[in-house]
């Protein structure tokens, strides 16, 4: 049975299982042993369940019609299942020693279509007896019986082999009981209300020849069963002998309405009667002080208290007593001595129950043995008392029937009780306590399992209460079940049926009933144009009905129901997928309806229709309703609704985010995030609802069926066909070793033959899932060994003695603040140096297992804030080596092994950069550190597993990391570019090639034109010498970009070996100021493009003075935008029209599409637009897929360096975004420092804050009007009186200035127009001043690059 879900095919362990309510039938349940393991099979509706323990479901099979009877063949594992019309035979299949499943192999065909099957029984050698309403039929399932029981030529519906009956006998009335004796010589049958049990004795095993007799009873026979033979002696028929031995008599138990257990025994070979009455046990009088003794003697048997009986063969009882005697004990047990004496008589045991907690056990001696002549007949047949108990927890409801199955496992007695009211109970107790003469009733047995639930059809909806373990479920037939899955055992609270189709469920707390809840059920009555919300208490009582008439355009829409409230008010919202809905507010204490509401969401401006809608409610803010919608393009639309005193709703669009998943099939939302699945269900995206970040996106291995966020926790359950994955929200990390959403647990039902149809969270963090008629409850804990290694190391699992962790606590631990030694990048060089100094000193006296303070015992104000402690010293190589040695010997807490290896590389990079700190400013230092760190990462990735710690690097592998636009932007604004360039050139031994320059982004961040020309000249020479013999073609683009055609001509002059020398030299000698020569150069360029020689074609475009075409070819066909930038800067200069066109047409659109603030800021900077460069770092990104990296807190550091005297109107929101990202990165104190110490500049244009933040909040503590998790940022209070005493900060004014007059919009518009005119004027002046200087500046003749003197670095700093 292959699985369609990702992961393995091993089912998970569950804490509770509810396979479904058993069908009301005498043969609903069967238990048998196969391969030394006990199996329990029972059917619920059309589903047959195989279980081995209270929490292990092996398999579930579905049948076209509800089965009514099941019988198992001992020792072979075959199972016969019968519905009213059909009979199947199931055979076990095995794989290895543990995996077993059953497959339908035979279909038993009955001749009379009007004959309805009633009961089943297995005979000898694979025979199946079917008792029906008209016939008693016998089938053979053995392969050798195909001749006598031929297969039908017409294949069955399931392509099963068909067998026809060996013989059939007409019966006068419907058969209620039919059972083979263990030897298969006798058959006992009985009708529904018969007082006679018919005994059929076989005269031939080959033909249907019988003689028979009747066993009379004074009342209706309610139960009959054969005593199994001793398993040690075996069956006589197994040896091929059909005769019955007198030593092995067969015993029949019957119970009638007179309350007597009758024991019938076969006689000798020469006896006239087939069965003789051996003895009786009065089940009524066997229980003194029972209500039946108080009853009137003339009362009819129907009015007496019910009696239930369990029979145990002497062999099983004695084996259990022997096992109990073998158990180690330190004191003498009187109960055990009593059992020894009882077992010495080898009695068969009869246990009688009254269903009210009373139990009495009686023994009957020598039932299955040959009668000893010297033993008095009367005394040997008389039953003797074994034990009596009061207060037994094994109880039955009055007026309900029940059937029992009992067996021993070593010294443990197991009893299955099939309640005809719709439940199966599994009780267990040790034989010593159960049959003790003095043990209390509650100590004798304990309940192992309660199996109930649905039986009418598959479960369609499942919902757990926010508190406790209450579950509300409904099936396809409209049946609703309310149950409590308590840790002590589940039990049913109420059951009811609604007319029509149930669409969704919702629950909310009942303040008057601790732990109780109300249920709101959205269903569609008989009228398809109407909906109705029914309010019920968990006990089933109807509290109210709220009708809702559908609009015509709502046809085909799906509906969902949400509810939330507090001790005063509750809000219920019924929402359609297309954005229409209704709601009501309730007085929770009554409960009574306060207001009825209807609303319709406005259509999106994009014109794309809404596909799915989810309501987000919060018990702390009942009057605020959030709606999350997704349209066809995958865009998320956030609406906010306030419920006023009149109960009206007015939806307002507050934000729009992209989810990167077009045409989503599923949408689920919580207070903080929304999760969507693609149209095919094979892709998942999780979006942060505060800032719109796509935090998680990955392709799944199966089709997503369900997405359920956990209330009040940062967890989400993703359901597939046979598996559920639990994801927890983690931290933001640049390196990405651990994603923002981490897989914590897998829950699988693979191999069971079921498909998950519903999924929900319980109040304690457990997960409940429904499949077929089953409800599986998975623990809210995850075993330690199932966690990923990095997760275990990050939470210090190796230092803890716990074998499992709670999912809810794990989700919080994964987001807690990071220790100061975590290798996360934050850009504070001095702070990092100081912390590493402290870490070295701490590790000297620290060993694994000891506590290590997250701040290294340094006060928080000394680490972050205005009172930051001075640096202890410079991080030199000696200190770094000492720290590296300690990190090799000790594992730091709260970091994984991967993160500790990264910390080592960070220490190495900082030690390298410490020698250049005095020569570089902050921007250049950032670039140098990330460059060195990238080299170390590359070396670690290229290291081979040779057994050495670091491995061996591949030969001739250049370590050139690709520098991100982030580092390029910082280096571009650095004032120490030349020292940085010297360091890079010296590292690569003055052998800079274009691939190295492109990866380093040299021509994007270098500002000095002379340095650019020197580097480009060096690249030209290296390109010329890149082949042997040297080829001028490789250097053509470089020389022509620098307007050095004579130098290129000189190279061609000495290239006598080149076949293109003569033609090229003749062409280069032309005057390309003439239009005809330009045209010829362009023709050559196009010809070269046709030959895929794009870089050489770009050189000819430069020769034709068509630099725009050259840069276009380089950026598009060559896909080398960095080379196009270099050519544009060298050929035309910064600020030129050529560079502007390239940047605006190529670089800036791609940067805007990617939301890359670093690249957009660089584009404006290279175009000499400093105000726009600063604005790009803080302005909101619209129409792009948002990622948290776009709002990297480092952008605020660059913004502070780039901005001039005036600030940006978006600065306020940018600071808040950066603080939220820092908090998600685990840098809580840095987030606190940012909001507390940031100095705002006066914005160029003041604007009010967006309306997306709810009144009374600071923009951090709430998410679209919905409360966010508590944060360090929530404590900052508003202060309206800022004045002009100091620079404004986050603490001074959280609220924007509000206009006091109606003319405020006009003033703002005038200010914007004035500012725009001023910016245009500045841009024009800068362009006119910069372009001629770049074009007319005289530079010395190009020479070969010469290595700078070693003292030049010191000379530039005045040493």
Automatic annotation (TrEMBL):
<feature type="compositionally biased region" description="Basic and acidic residues">
    <location>
        <begin position="1336"/>
        <end position="1349"/>
    </location>
</feature>
<dbReference type="InterPro" id="IPR015943">
    <property type="entry name" value="WD40/YVTN_repeat-like_dom_sf"/>
</dbReference>
<dbReference type="InterPro" id="IPR022033">
    <property type="entry name" value="Rav1p_C"/>
</dbReference>
<dbReference type="InterPro" id="IPR052208">
    <property type="entry name" value="DmX-like/RAVE_component"/>
</dbReference>
<dbReference type="GO" id="GO:0043291">
    <property type="term" value="C:RAVE complex"/>
</dbReference>
<protein>
    <submittedName>
        <fullName>Regulator of (H+)-ATPase in vacuolar membrane</fullName>
    </submittedName>
</protein>
<feature type="domain" description="RAVE complex protein Rav1 C-terminal">
    <location>
        <begin position="639"/>
        <end position="1233"/>
    </location>
</feature>
<dbReference type="GO" id="GO:0007035">
    <property type="term" value="P:vacuolar acidification"/>
</dbReference>
<feature type="region of interest" description="Disordered">
    <location>
        <begin position="1325"/>
        <end position="1359"/>
    </location>
</feature>
<dbReference type="InterPro" id="IPR036322">
    <property type="entry name" value="WD40_repeat_dom_sf"/>
</dbReference>
<dbReference type="InterPro" id="IPR001680">
    <property type="entry name" value="WD40_rpt"/>
</dbReference>
<dbReference type="Pfam" id="PF12234">
    <property type="entry name" value="Rav1p_C"/>
</dbReference>
